[in-house]
Amino acid sequence: MSYTPLDEGSVASFLATIPTIAKRLGGSPDQWTVREVGDGNLNVVFLVTGQEGGVAAKQALPYVRLVGESWPLPLSRAYYERLALADQARWAPDRVPALLHHDDVMALTVMELLRSHRTLRGALAEGERYPLLAGHLAEFLADTLFFTSDIAMPVVEKKARIAAYLGNTAMCRISEDLIFDEPFFDAPMNHHTPGLEDVVAAFCVDVPLRLAAQGMKARFLAAPEALLHGDLHTGSVMVTEADTKIIDPEFAFYGPIGFDVGMLLANLWMACLAQPGQRPGRSMDGLLLDQAATLWNGFATRFAGHWRALERDADHGSLHALGRGDADLREAAIAERLAAIWQDALGFAGCEVIRRILGLAHVADFETIVDEAMRAVCERRALHLGWALLVERDAFPDAAAVAQAILRESAGA
Amino acid sequence: MSYTPLDEGSVASFLATIPTIAKRLGGSPDQWTVREVGDGNLNVVFLVTGQEGGVAAKQALPYVRLVGESWPLPLSRAYYERLALADQARWAPDRVPALLHHDDVMALTVMELLRSHRTLRGALAEGERYPLLAGHLAEFLADTLFFTSDIAMPVVEKKARIAAYLGNTAMCRISEDLIFDEPFFDAPMNHHTPGLEDVVAAFCVDVPLRLAAQGMKARFLAAPEALLHGDLHTGSVMVTEADTKIIDPEFAFYGPIGFDVGMLLANLWMACLAQPGQRPGRSMDGLLLDQAATLWNGFATRFAGHWRALERDADHGSLHALGRGDADLREAAIAERLAAIWQDALGFAGCEVIRRILGLAHVADFETIVDEAMRAVCERRALHLGWALLVERDAFPDAAAVAQAILRESAGA
Lengths: 413, 413
Fold this sequence. Notes:
2 copies of one chain form a homodimer. By secondary structure, chain A is α+β, with helices and mostly antiparallel strands. Helices cover 51% and strands 12% of the residues of chain A. The mean pLDDT of chain A is 93.
């Protein structure tokens, strides 16, 4: 069978041909309910429920959904997505949906249905808060990034994993163009809220800013430290009160650890910066700012804990080999590495904030602010923060310093 | 045919079965002269001359020649060597020997015979100096490292090249162990000149030093910036008055640009530091120190020149794409990148110096100093320099600063 795009009318009969899926759903296909919910930029997603259970079926389209057929995109991304889902499940099984079936030809991935979950981005915009969230995200980051890195993984195995993802070039290219390049010049698909023209013009000729962004691109291109999710914004996080799941790792590749960390932090910080527009007159929600700090601190603590727990006798060529039995060296190495990840995270966060306001792919946090003038005010503050994260990185020794800056920006309205 | 080790008795008849090689040599095999000259640590090398011409035939052994059959090493390194020879010939054809034939099963590479050339290490130890050398080496470094990097090479092509070399793990592992790990603890195969025990003991507990060495290892493991030679010491350089050729790229892989640069500089600096032992009573040869500086400056100038000459319209996702048409940004990017390469080069040079004195694989520069006490004096100075290159890197803004430090060390005898 060759690739055929599924739709709400055809997906049930297709899934019925897969015994494990048919059994999971139960009953006959004409009793199943199908709902297409793909609100992302790239794919179609069907939620299918039967008498016994439900599944989520995600199919890649041969083009970028956000733009249309004029922007082709290879179906191979579905292959990399299920590869990443399997790798992530090895290290953080509780934080990713169970993979039930995949079909490389159909570019189709069938996963457990996250029945009670909603996307974090939408929930945050409505003021929902999740006390377990920061801990769960820290767990996902620390577990997937530490155990796929040179520190924990034998060198030969790690190189094989790097190789396994090196072909995901089309997805990486999207990030290279949209995050690091296009927001900083007058790229055709850029768009922004009226009133920000002066910032756009200033950024285009800001050599330190563009140099810093290109420096982050250089890291993105040539720092295969660990297996990244690659698109870890709040739209890739599904939440309930009790659970957190990370979805959509089709941008996965081996890259700098700070990229996943920084993108996630940036999206939490944007959720904060959008609040004055979403709920005028109400004060900034300190809990969300605290959660960003808790996320970073939780990640750092857990990452360090994994490092300390490595078997002392391991001698497979990993970075930690030399530190075995030498606590001083190990602690110095942990501190140095975490500082470097933080530096990277700040720079990547700066790029992420700027590109979500000036580039092609915006975020609902700001887009749902109906009052254009108010939206421009919020976005201007965010752009200033993004600029500082790239150009004045040393001013942010920790997540608390970023929180302070966000409060200062918002108070200055 | 399966792999069979060749020897002086069998190599001629084997080469006679390869028409292009037989024709190049001319006459009949019984008229050919064969000389085995493999003075390296890993392989056998036959120089074969006939009536018409000559060839060099290099065969990998399934173990490390320096240690013996107890240390197996895969024959695949011959495959990577000819891959690298071909890649290097694309960018620096005048600086590598012509590849005439290869046989992956026999792990055999047949190259042009460098009839009048000798190894740079031996020549330097005898006081020979080559006015064109620094320029030639700068050319090789700048041309191979720039054009295989993210700056010049389209991203998709570069990722394919990274993948092509990712399997050369056994050779990389030798470097990982022998350069970054073993010199800094009491590894079984370490050896050193009597009298250096205090330095060995101090280095083993020197946390900043070992942390810096592990930092360089992290760069070596996860910074695929460009195609490296991977073993660019003065024994991999063949010279005449007029020509310079770089041989033996079997350690080739995509790694940090500063590694090739730093290893080469370190070996030139060691040649200087060994002089008081090799030629007692004679003053330090300033020409050689100058050549190291000329090499770095020539590399930097040529690297920058290549960057400036890139086509402005190129839009293949490389790092330079954004800099097109913006001279300020481009110049800032060039300066920043060269500073980063210099920092890396210093750190790698520090590791190289230390491992050549305290690790397994030493260099003739020091080993040929018969007076053990004098050798220890020279090596102690070199170790101090190596330590400073790793731990006090900021003290060396340029190659002249390193030259000054070497002169200071030597004057302090």
